Amino acid sequence: MTICGSATGTETKEVVCRSVGARAQAIAAARDQGKSMEEVIASQRNVTGQADDKTTKEAAELLFHRFRQMTPEAAAFEFYMDCLDND
Fold it and tell me: Contact, 80 vs 16, CB < 8 A?
């Protein structure tokens, strides 16, 4: 990810957290379309070119096993907010 040199620490975190939320939304949407967790992880790798496998796998495990009923929009919001809360 390329971040502008003029971005502050807060702006940088905002960009990263938006990306985390977008990834969670994509994972939940693919899950709802009936794709397997392995397919979703592979598709995230194809989209980003070099997926953060650990983060993607953790999000997929949560969205496939613990939060199966979470909508893609709710996943985007919850993962975004969780990212912002982590230091």
Answer: no
